[in-house]
Amino acid sequence: MPKMKTKTAAKKRFRLSAGGKLVRRRAFRAHLLEHKSAKRRRIKRRTKVMVPADTREALRLLGKR
């Protein structure tokens, strides 16, 4: 059986943390930032742990399950 290929789109968007959790970027951070408050932009800089409902599918796309 051939090897599983990682979905390139998933590879660019998610990564596994050292603790084994899936990490993602926050949305609404690409453009139109002038009218967003500094607090909101600052929070968007941080990464976020993915919710369990999406984790299973994301791991499958990454070829981890």
Structural shape: elongated
Low-confidence stretches: none
* Percent of residues in beta strands: 5-15%
End-to-end Cα distance: 16 Å
Strand order of the largest sheet: 1-2-3
Helicity, in percent? Answer: 25-40%
* Nearest-integer average pLDDT: 94
User: Could you give a short account of the major beta sheet?
Assistant: 3 strands, antiparallel
- What's the number of extended β-strand segments? 3
- Would you list the SSEs in sequence order as H and E? HEEHEH
- Counting DSSP H or I runs of 4 or more residues, the number of helices is 3
State Rg: 15 Å
Q: Structural class, from secondary structure content?
A: alpha+beta
Topology:
Elements: H1 8-13, E1 14-16, E2 22-24, H2 38-45, E3 48-49, H3 52-62
Antiparallel strand pairs: 1-2, 2-3
Fold and architecture overview:
The chain is of the alpha+beta class and 65 residues long. The protein has three helices and three strands. The protein has a three-stranded antiparallel beta sheet. The chain is elongated, with a radius of gyration of 15 Å. The relative contact order is 0.26.
Quick rundown:
This protein is of the alpha+beta class and 65 residues long.
Give the key terms.
3 helices, 3 strands, three-stranded antiparallel β-sheet, 38% helix, alpha+beta, 65 residues
